[in-house]
Amino acid sequence: MAAAISNAVVGLLHDYTGRGPTRARTTIDGDTIIVTLRDSLTKAEKTLAARGQSLEVLAMRRAFQGTMREDLIAAVERLSGRQVEAFLSDNLHDPDVAVEIFLMAPADGNGSRDASRDGANGSRDGGRPD
Predict the structure, then answer these.
(1) SS3 state of residue 119
(2) Domains of the chain, residue spans
(3) CATH top-level class for 2-109?
(4) What is the per-residue pLDDT across 41-84, written as a single tens digit (0 to 9) for each?
(5) Could you tell me the pTM of the whole model?
(6) H-helix or E-strand containing 91?
(7) Is the separation of the CB atoms in 32 and 103 below 8 Å?
(8) Helices and strands, counts by H and E, the chain
(9) Are 49 and 41 in contact (CB under 8 A)?
(10) What single-letter DSSP state applies at residue 124?
(11) Residues 24/85, Cβ–Cβ less than 8 Å
């Protein structure tokens, strides 16, 4: 599933920007899916950033992410079989890295977590409520 999500995100970036990243890695951990993308800026974006226009490049990338939002969420939902509860996205120009973070609705589908995953039963957050 991780490879399929990476491929889908790379494909969408290519479709929207004309160039996809050269490296992508998807990490799936519980209710979180993180896609890390490297070397995704176009030649034009790299030139602009190198000449002092990095804020404009990042603003343009954020605009693309906002435009691609629905397609990215749809792809992750289709491939994971789960609903995306929240989507976060950001870019840097130096290093040329981006992240797409998908927070999935709890697997039980009703908004509550499985009791065996909370509190004294192995939660990494010390049992704090979500």
Answers:
(1) helix
(2) 2-109
(3) alpha beta
(4) 999 999 999 999 999 999 999 998 889 999 999 999 999 999 99
(5) 0.79
(6) strand 84-93
(7) yes
(8) 3, 4
(9) yes
(10) T
(11) no
Structure tokens at 17: 């920007």
Identity (one letter) of the amino acid at 33? Answer: I
- Cross-sheet strand order for the sheet of 32-38: 23-29, 32-38, 96-104, 84-93
The token pair at 78 is: 């289709």
Q: Among candidates 54, 45, 48, 24, which has minimal Cα distance to 36?
A: 24
Q: Which two tokens stand for residue 64?
A: 């693309």
Convert 99-130 to b/e letters by CB count within 10 Å (16 or more is b).
Answer: ebebebebeeeeeebeeeebeeeeeeeeeeee
- Specify the amino acid at residue 109: G
Residue type, 83: Q
Sign of the four-CA dihedral 116, 119, 121, 125 = positive
